[in-house]
Write a structure and sequence with these properties.
Number of helices: 14
CATH architecture of the domain at 3-36 and 101-178 and 283-350: 3-Layer(bba) Sandwich
Strand content: 25-35%
Distance between the termini: 17 Å
Low-confidence stretches: none
CATH superfamily of the domain at 3-36 and 101-178 and 283-350: FAD/NAD(P)-binding domain
Radius of gyration: 21 Å
Amino acid sequence: MPRVIISGAGIAGTVLAYWLGKNGFQVVVVERSLSSTQSGQIIDVEGPAQEIVTRMGLMEDIKSKVTHEAGIRFVDDSSQEFALFPVGRTGISNEIEIMRPALAAVLFAAADKLPNVEFRNGCTIQAIQQSVSEVIVDIHHKASGAISQEHFDMLVASDGLRSPTRDLILPISDKESCLKSLKIFAAFFSIPAKPHDRPYATLYQAPGRRAVFTKPWTEHETSAYLTYCKYDQSLHDARESRDVNLQKTRLATIFEGLGWETDRLIKGMMEAENFYFEEISQVKLNKWSQGRCVLLGDTAYCPSPLTGQGTNLAILGAYVLASKLVKDRDNPTEAFEEYERDLRPYVNKVQPIPLGGYLPLLINPDTSWGLWIQRFVLRWISWLQPWKYFPDLKNVPYNLPDL
Protein backbone atom coordinates (compact mmCIF):
# COMPACT_ATOMS: atom_id res chain seq x y z
CA MET A 1 0.00 0.00 0.00
CA PRO A 2 1.25 3.51 -0.78
CA ARG A 3 1.46 5.40 2.53
CA VAL A 4 0.01 8.93 2.62
CA ILE A 5 -0.05 11.54 5.36
CA ILE A 6 -2.73 14.25 5.21
CA SER A 7 -2.36 17.40 7.31
CA GLY A 8 -5.82 18.61 8.31
CA ALA A 9 -9.01 16.66 9.02
CA GLY A 10 -11.33 19.24 7.50
CA ILE A 11 -13.70 18.69 4.59
CA ALA A 12 -11.04 18.23 1.87
CA GLY A 13 -8.69 16.09 3.95
CA THR A 14 -11.45 13.76 5.11
CA VAL A 15 -12.94 13.28 1.62
CA LEU A 16 -9.46 12.52 0.26
CA ALA A 17 -8.83 10.03 3.10
CA TYR A 18 -12.10 8.26 2.26
CA TRP A 19 -11.39 7.83 -1.45
CA LEU A 20 -7.76 6.85 -0.99
CA GLY A 21 -8.70 4.42 1.77
CA LYS A 22 -11.35 2.87 -0.47
CA ASN A 23 -8.72 2.32 -3.16
CA GLY A 24 -5.95 0.59 -1.26
CA PHE A 25 -3.87 3.41 0.24
CA GLN A 26 -2.62 3.50 3.82
CA VAL A 27 -3.75 6.90 5.08
CA VAL A 28 -2.75 8.83 8.21
CA VAL A 29 -4.65 12.08 8.88
CA VAL A 30 -3.11 14.43 11.46
CA GLU A 31 -5.23 17.18 12.99
CA ARG A 32 -4.14 20.00 15.28
CA SER A 33 -7.33 19.90 17.36
CA LEU A 34 -7.51 17.43 20.22
CA SER A 35 -11.14 16.72 19.34
CA SER A 36 -12.65 15.25 16.19
CA THR A 37 -15.48 17.80 16.47
CA GLN A 38 -15.18 20.49 13.79
CA SER A 39 -16.09 24.15 14.14
CA GLY A 40 -17.70 26.45 11.59
CA GLN A 41 -20.98 27.83 10.42
CA ILE A 42 -23.51 27.15 7.67
CA ILE A 43 -22.22 25.96 4.29
CA ASP A 44 -23.85 24.53 1.19
CA VAL A 45 -23.24 21.46 -0.96
CA GLU A 46 -23.93 22.10 -4.64
CA GLY A 47 -22.81 21.21 -8.16
CA PRO A 48 -20.19 18.46 -8.60
CA ALA A 49 -19.80 18.17 -4.81
CA GLN A 50 -23.38 16.86 -4.60
CA GLU A 51 -22.59 14.09 -7.05
CA ILE A 52 -19.42 13.17 -5.13
CA VAL A 53 -21.17 12.79 -1.76
CA THR A 54 -23.88 10.82 -3.56
CA ARG A 55 -21.19 8.44 -4.85
CA MET A 56 -20.00 8.15 -1.25
CA GLY A 57 -23.52 7.05 -0.28
CA LEU A 58 -23.92 10.00 2.10
CA MET A 59 -26.51 12.24 0.46
CA GLU A 60 -29.49 11.04 2.49
CA ASP A 61 -27.53 11.41 5.73
CA ILE A 62 -26.55 14.95 4.74
CA LYS A 63 -30.11 15.87 3.77
CA SER A 64 -31.32 14.72 7.18
CA LYS A 65 -29.10 17.37 8.80
CA VAL A 66 -29.87 20.43 6.65
CA THR A 67 -31.01 23.65 8.30
CA HIS A 68 -34.32 23.82 6.35
CA GLU A 69 -33.75 27.47 5.53
CA ALA A 70 -36.64 28.79 3.42
CA GLY A 71 -34.77 31.68 1.83
CA ILE A 72 -33.41 35.09 2.74
CA ARG A 73 -35.22 38.27 3.67
CA PHE A 74 -33.85 41.82 3.78
CA VAL A 75 -34.89 44.18 6.57
CA ASP A 76 -34.43 47.89 7.29
CA ASP A 77 -33.50 49.75 10.48
CA SER A 78 -36.95 49.25 11.99
CA SER A 79 -36.99 45.51 11.23
CA GLN A 80 -39.44 45.89 8.34
CA GLU A 81 -38.97 43.37 5.54
CA PHE A 82 -38.57 44.99 2.11
CA ALA A 83 -37.33 42.08 -0.05
CA LEU A 84 -37.60 38.29 0.04
CA PHE A 85 -35.74 35.69 -2.02
CA PRO A 86 -36.89 32.05 -1.74
CA VAL A 87 -34.49 29.15 -1.40
CA GLY A 88 -33.03 27.38 -4.43
CA ARG A 89 -34.21 29.79 -7.12
CA THR A 90 -31.85 32.75 -7.02
CA GLY A 91 -28.41 31.42 -6.07
CA ILE A 92 -28.57 33.58 -2.92
CA SER A 93 -29.95 30.83 -0.69
CA ASN A 94 -29.51 27.13 -1.46
CA GLU A 95 -31.46 23.93 -0.93
CA ILE A 96 -28.72 21.93 0.81
CA GLU A 97 -27.41 24.16 3.59
CA ILE A 98 -25.83 22.41 6.53
CA MET A 99 -23.70 23.34 9.52
CA ARG A 100 -20.06 22.64 8.78
CA PRO A 101 -19.63 20.52 11.95
CA ALA A 102 -22.58 18.33 10.86
CA LEU A 103 -21.14 17.79 7.36
CA ALA A 104 -17.68 17.13 8.78
CA ALA A 105 -19.11 14.53 11.17
CA VAL A 106 -20.84 12.67 8.31
CA LEU A 107 -17.65 12.63 6.22
CA PHE A 108 -15.47 11.65 9.18
CA ALA A 109 -17.72 8.70 10.08
CA ALA A 110 -17.48 7.39 6.50
CA ALA A 111 -13.67 7.65 6.36
CA ASP A 112 -13.07 6.43 9.90
CA LYS A 113 -14.84 3.13 9.15
CA LEU A 114 -12.11 2.15 6.71
CA PRO A 115 -9.45 -0.07 8.32
CA ASN A 116 -6.55 1.56 6.47
CA VAL A 117 -7.48 5.15 7.45
CA GLU A 118 -6.15 6.48 10.76
CA PHE A 119 -7.05 9.85 12.32
CA ARG A 120 -4.63 11.30 14.88
CA ASN A 121 -5.87 14.30 16.85
CA GLY A 122 -3.58 16.70 18.66
CA CYS A 123 -0.84 16.23 16.07
CA THR A 124 0.90 18.70 13.77
CA ILE A 125 3.66 18.44 11.18
CA GLN A 126 6.79 20.22 12.39
CA ALA A 127 9.27 19.49 9.60
CA ILE A 128 9.59 17.58 6.35
CA GLN A 129 12.46 16.14 4.34
CA GLN A 130 11.95 15.00 0.77
CA SER A 131 13.86 12.56 -1.39
CA VAL A 132 13.06 11.11 -4.80
CA SER A 133 11.32 8.14 -3.17
CA GLU A 134 9.74 9.36 0.11
CA VAL A 135 8.82 12.13 2.51
CA ILE A 136 10.20 12.02 6.05
CA VAL A 137 7.86 13.82 8.44
CA ASP A 138 8.42 15.07 11.99
CA ILE A 139 5.10 14.90 13.87
CA HIS A 140 4.54 16.82 17.09
CA HIS A 141 2.17 15.24 19.60
CA LYS A 142 0.45 17.96 21.60
CA ALA A 143 -0.54 15.85 24.60
CA SER A 144 2.94 14.51 25.35
CA GLY A 145 5.09 17.13 23.69
CA ALA A 146 6.99 14.37 21.90
CA ILE A 147 8.12 14.46 18.28
CA SER A 148 8.10 11.28 16.22
CA GLN A 149 9.56 10.77 12.76
CA GLU A 150 7.78 8.69 10.13
CA HIS A 151 8.27 7.84 6.45
CA PHE A 152 5.56 8.28 3.82
CA ASP A 153 5.28 7.99 0.07
CA MET A 154 3.59 11.40 -0.17
CA LEU A 155 2.23 14.32 1.89
CA VAL A 156 -0.99 16.29 1.35
CA ALA A 157 -1.36 19.70 3.02
CA SER A 158 -5.04 20.42 3.63
CA ASP A 159 -4.98 22.48 6.81
CA GLY A 160 -6.73 25.63 5.70
CA LEU A 161 -6.27 29.16 4.46
CA ARG A 162 -3.31 29.90 6.76
CA SER A 163 -1.76 26.45 6.51
CA PRO A 164 1.52 26.04 8.43
CA THR A 165 2.26 22.88 6.43
CA ARG A 166 2.08 24.87 3.20
CA ASP A 167 4.86 27.07 4.54
CA LEU A 168 7.06 23.99 5.02
CA ILE A 169 6.52 22.93 1.40
CA LEU A 170 6.66 26.14 -0.62
CA PRO A 171 9.65 28.34 -1.40
CA ILE A 172 9.80 31.49 0.73
CA SER A 173 8.73 33.74 -2.14
CA ASP A 174 5.53 31.74 -2.71
CA LYS A 175 4.48 31.38 0.91
CA GLU A 176 4.81 35.12 1.45
CA SER A 177 2.81 36.11 -1.63
CA CYS A 178 0.07 33.49 -2.01
CA LEU A 179 -2.39 35.03 0.48
CA LYS A 180 -4.43 37.79 -1.17
CA SER A 181 -6.48 39.84 1.30
CA LEU A 182 -9.84 41.06 -0.01
CA LYS A 183 -9.84 43.78 2.68
CA ILE A 184 -13.07 42.47 4.19
CA PHE A 185 -13.51 41.29 7.76
CA ALA A 186 -16.08 38.75 8.92
CA ALA A 187 -17.04 37.09 12.18
CA PHE A 188 -19.44 34.24 12.78
CA PHE A 189 -20.77 32.67 15.94
CA SER A 190 -23.95 31.19 17.44
CA ILE A 191 -26.55 33.00 19.53
CA PRO A 192 -29.65 31.79 21.41
CA ALA A 193 -32.50 31.38 18.91
CA LYS A 194 -35.77 33.29 18.88
CA PRO A 195 -38.91 32.05 17.09
CA HIS A 196 -38.70 34.72 14.36
CA ASP A 197 -35.18 33.55 13.39
CA ARG A 198 -36.83 30.75 11.40
CA PRO A 199 -37.46 29.75 8.66
CA TYR A 200 -35.75 32.60 6.77
CA ALA A 201 -32.24 33.98 6.96
CA THR A 202 -32.28 37.72 7.65
CA LEU A 203 -29.85 40.37 6.38
CA TYR A 204 -29.61 43.90 7.69
CA GLN A 205 -27.17 46.45 6.23
CA ALA A 206 -26.03 49.81 7.55
CA PRO A 207 -23.97 52.69 6.15
CA GLY A 208 -20.23 52.25 6.37
CA ARG A 209 -20.32 48.91 4.51
CA ARG A 210 -21.54 47.03 7.59
CA ALA A 211 -23.82 44.00 7.43
CA VAL A 212 -25.50 41.90 10.13
CA PHE A 213 -26.80 38.48 9.15
CA THR A 214 -28.62 35.59 10.82
CA LYS A 215 -29.38 32.12 9.48
CA PRO A 216 -31.64 29.51 11.09
CA TRP A 217 -29.92 26.52 12.64
CA THR A 218 -31.91 24.73 15.35
CA GLU A 219 -34.79 25.60 17.66
CA HIS A 220 -32.21 26.62 20.26
CA GLU A 221 -29.38 28.20 18.25
CA THR A 222 -29.14 30.70 15.42
CA SER A 223 -26.05 31.26 13.29
CA ALA A 224 -24.94 34.91 13.28
CA TYR A 225 -22.52 36.91 11.14
CA LEU A 226 -20.97 40.38 11.16
CA THR A 227 -19.16 41.66 8.06
CA TYR A 228 -17.22 44.87 7.55
CA CYS A 229 -16.31 45.59 3.93
CA LYS A 230 -13.59 48.15 4.63
CA TYR A 231 -9.95 47.70 5.42
CA ASP A 232 -9.30 48.52 9.06
CA GLN A 233 -5.80 48.32 10.48
CA SER A 234 -7.04 47.69 14.02
CA LEU A 235 -9.13 44.72 12.82
CA HIS A 236 -6.15 43.41 10.87
CA ASP A 237 -3.98 43.70 13.98
CA ALA A 238 -6.67 42.00 16.08
CA ARG A 239 -6.78 39.06 13.68
CA GLU A 240 -3.01 38.77 13.69
CA SER A 241 -2.97 38.81 17.49
CA ARG A 242 -5.36 35.82 17.71
CA ASP A 243 -6.75 37.52 20.82
CA VAL A 244 -10.46 36.62 20.74
CA ASN A 245 -11.44 39.21 23.37
CA LEU A 246 -9.66 41.94 21.41
CA GLN A 247 -11.40 40.87 18.21
CA LYS A 248 -14.83 40.88 19.86
CA THR A 249 -14.26 44.25 21.50
CA ARG A 250 -13.14 45.90 18.27
CA LEU A 251 -16.13 44.51 16.34
CA ALA A 252 -18.53 45.63 19.06
CA THR A 253 -17.16 49.17 18.74
CA ILE A 254 -17.76 49.17 14.97
CA PHE A 255 -21.28 47.69 15.07
CA GLU A 256 -22.82 49.05 18.28
CA GLY A 257 -25.76 51.41 17.94
CA LEU A 258 -27.01 50.15 14.57
CA GLY A 259 -30.63 49.29 13.84
CA TRP A 260 -32.58 46.04 13.66
CA GLU A 261 -31.31 43.47 16.24
CA THR A 262 -27.64 44.40 16.12
CA ASP A 263 -27.39 44.86 19.89
CA ARG A 264 -28.77 41.34 20.40
CA LEU A 265 -26.08 39.93 18.09
CA ILE A 266 -23.29 41.90 19.77
CA LYS A 267 -24.37 40.60 23.18
CA GLY A 268 -24.50 37.06 21.78
CA MET A 269 -21.06 37.50 20.20
CA MET A 270 -19.49 38.59 23.48
CA GLU A 271 -20.83 35.42 25.14
CA ALA A 272 -20.23 32.99 22.25
CA GLU A 273 -17.68 30.22 22.66
CA ASN A 274 -17.63 29.26 18.97
CA PHE A 275 -16.61 32.73 17.76
CA TYR A 276 -14.47 32.82 14.62
CA PHE A 277 -12.99 35.95 13.03
CA GLU A 278 -11.11 36.27 9.76
CA GLU A 279 -9.75 38.77 7.28
CA ILE A 280 -11.33 37.38 4.12
CA SER A 281 -8.61 36.28 1.70
CA GLN A 282 -7.94 34.08 -1.28
CA VAL A 283 -5.01 31.80 -2.04
CA LYS A 284 -3.43 32.03 -5.48
CA LEU A 285 -0.39 29.95 -6.41
CA ASN A 286 1.43 29.24 -9.63
CA LYS A 287 1.99 25.62 -8.59
CA TRP A 288 0.13 23.35 -6.16
CA SER A 289 2.82 20.73 -5.56
CA GLN A 290 6.49 20.41 -4.76
CA GLY A 291 8.06 16.99 -5.29
CA ARG A 292 6.09 14.42 -3.27
CA CYS A 293 4.07 17.08 -1.44
CA VAL A 294 0.82 18.58 -2.72
CA LEU A 295 -1.66 21.22 -1.56
CA LEU A 296 -5.42 20.67 -1.42
CA GLY A 297 -8.56 22.73 -0.75
CA ASP A 298 -8.26 26.17 0.85
CA THR A 299 -4.54 25.53 1.35
CA ALA A 300 -4.04 25.55 -2.43
CA TYR A 301 -6.85 27.65 -3.90
CA CYS A 302 -9.11 29.18 -1.25
CA PRO A 303 -11.83 31.02 -3.19
CA SER A 304 -13.10 32.90 -0.09
CA PRO A 305 -16.64 32.79 1.35
CA LEU A 306 -17.63 35.54 -1.09
CA THR A 307 -17.83 32.98 -3.89
CA GLY A 308 -19.80 30.38 -1.91
CA GLN A 309 -17.52 27.76 -3.44
CA GLY A 310 -15.14 26.84 -0.60
CA THR A 311 -16.80 23.60 0.51
CA ASN A 312 -17.72 22.51 -3.00
CA LEU A 313 -14.20 23.13 -4.24
CA ALA A 314 -12.73 21.25 -1.27
CA ILE A 315 -14.85 18.16 -2.01
CA LEU A 316 -14.22 18.32 -5.76
CA GLY A 317 -10.48 18.87 -5.33
CA ALA A 318 -10.17 15.90 -2.99
CA TYR A 319 -12.02 13.65 -5.41
CA VAL A 320 -9.96 14.73 -8.43
CA LEU A 321 -6.68 14.33 -6.53
CA ALA A 322 -7.72 10.87 -5.34
CA SER A 323 -8.62 9.81 -8.88
CA LYS A 324 -5.19 10.84 -10.18
CA LEU A 325 -3.34 9.06 -7.36
CA VAL A 326 -5.35 5.86 -7.85
CA LYS A 327 -4.61 5.97 -11.56
CA ASP A 328 -0.87 6.60 -11.08
CA ARG A 329 -0.16 5.43 -7.53
CA ASP A 330 3.51 4.67 -8.18
CA ASN A 331 4.27 8.12 -9.54
CA PRO A 332 2.71 10.74 -7.24
CA THR A 333 4.56 13.67 -8.80
CA GLU A 334 2.92 12.96 -12.16
CA ALA A 335 -0.45 12.45 -10.45
CA PHE A 336 -0.08 15.83 -8.74
CA GLU A 337 0.61 17.54 -12.05
CA GLU A 338 -2.43 15.90 -13.68
CA TYR A 339 -4.58 16.94 -10.71
CA GLU A 340 -3.53 20.55 -11.20
CA ARG A 341 -3.91 20.46 -14.99
CA ASP A 342 -7.46 19.11 -14.71
CA LEU A 343 -8.72 21.19 -11.78
CA ARG A 344 -7.08 24.59 -12.33
CA PRO A 345 -9.43 25.64 -15.19
CA TYR A 346 -12.40 24.98 -12.89
CA VAL A 347 -10.77 26.94 -10.05
CA ASN A 348 -10.16 29.80 -12.46
CA LYS A 349 -13.90 29.85 -13.27
CA VAL A 350 -15.26 29.87 -9.72
CA GLN A 351 -12.58 31.79 -7.81
CA PRO A 352 -12.98 35.32 -9.24
CA ILE A 353 -15.14 37.77 -7.29
CA PRO A 354 -17.86 39.12 -9.66
CA LEU A 355 -17.56 42.58 -11.21
CA GLY A 356 -13.79 42.53 -11.07
CA GLY A 357 -13.79 42.12 -7.31
CA TYR A 358 -16.03 45.12 -6.65
CA LEU A 359 -19.23 43.17 -5.93
CA PRO A 360 -18.80 43.30 -2.10
CA LEU A 361 -18.51 47.10 -2.28
CA LEU A 362 -21.53 47.37 -4.58
CA ILE A 363 -23.81 45.27 -2.39
CA ASN A 364 -22.56 46.91 0.83
CA PRO A 365 -22.96 50.67 0.26
CA ASP A 366 -20.89 53.15 2.23
CA THR A 367 -23.46 55.96 2.41
CA SER A 368 -27.10 56.25 3.46
CA TRP A 369 -27.95 57.40 -0.07
CA GLY A 370 -26.28 54.34 -1.60
CA LEU A 371 -28.15 52.11 0.84
CA TRP A 372 -31.47 53.72 -0.12
CA ILE A 373 -30.79 53.01 -3.80
CA GLN A 374 -29.82 49.41 -3.06
CA ARG A 375 -32.99 48.79 -1.05
CA PHE A 376 -35.09 50.31 -3.82
CA VAL A 377 -33.50 47.96 -6.39
CA LEU A 378 -33.84 44.89 -4.16
CA ARG A 379 -37.48 45.68 -3.49
CA TRP A 380 -38.22 45.74 -7.22
CA ILE A 381 -36.20 42.58 -7.94
CA SER A 382 -38.05 40.75 -5.18
CA TRP A 383 -41.40 41.94 -6.56
CA LEU A 384 -40.62 41.19 -10.25
CA GLN A 385 -38.97 37.81 -9.46
CA PRO A 386 -36.74 37.56 -12.55
CA TRP A 387 -35.10 34.36 -11.23
CA LYS A 388 -34.46 32.84 -14.64
CA TYR A 389 -31.97 35.59 -15.43
CA PHE A 390 -29.82 34.92 -12.38
CA PRO A 391 -26.57 33.04 -13.13
CA ASP A 392 -26.31 29.69 -11.37
CA LEU A 393 -22.79 30.01 -9.99
CA LYS A 394 -23.24 26.97 -7.75
CA ASN A 395 -23.50 24.53 -10.60
CA VAL A 396 -20.52 25.12 -12.86
CA PRO A 397 -20.29 21.71 -14.59
CA TYR A 398 -17.35 19.35 -14.15
CA ASN A 399 -16.87 16.01 -15.87
CA LEU A 400 -16.13 13.79 -12.88
CA PRO A 401 -13.83 10.80 -13.44
CA ASP A 402 -14.85 7.36 -12.20
CA LEU A 403 -13.30 6.28 -8.92
